[in-house]
Amino acid sequence: AVADDVAALDAYERVDDGLYTRVSVPLFDADGGRRGEAAVYIGDPARLDALAAWPGDGSFAERVERGVRERGVAVSEQPER
């Protein structure tokens, strides 16, 4: 089931531990039509020794959610070649 798959991915990405957070973003097909939502996992730069940071206040997950929403992040399929 999809819920079991998502739970397995969340465990693998250590979402409960805060290493990664999962956000839903709009998913568009190659022609620009909306197909639904895509789950995107984003790692905490501080925990992954990355030279980056998510701006703002709140928890890592809150900052990511807000940043993704404010910037209009989406996933688009590439046209077939």
DSSP helical segment count? 2
* Secondary-structure element pattern, one letter each: HEEHE
Strand content: 25-35%
Contiguous low-pLDDT stretches (5 residues minimum) are none
**Global shape:** globular
Q: Strands of the largest sheet, in order across it?
A: 2-1-3
Output mean pLDDT.
Answer: 93
Could you describe the 3D structure shown?
The protein starts with a helix and ends in a 5-residue tail after the last strand. Strands 2-1-3 form a three-stranded mixed sheet, with helices on one face. With 81 residues, it is an alpha+beta fold. 28% of the residues lie in helices and 26% in strands. The chain has helices at residues 2-12, 60-71, and strands spanning 20-28, 34-43, 75-76.
Task: Write a compact overview of the structure shown.
With 81 residues, this protein is α+β, with helices and mostly antiparallel strands.
SSE topology:
Elements: H1 2-12, E1 20-28, E2 34-43, H2 60-71, E3 75-76
Parallel strand pairs: 1-3
Antiparallel strand pairs: 1-2
Keywords:
three-stranded mixed β-sheet; 81 residues
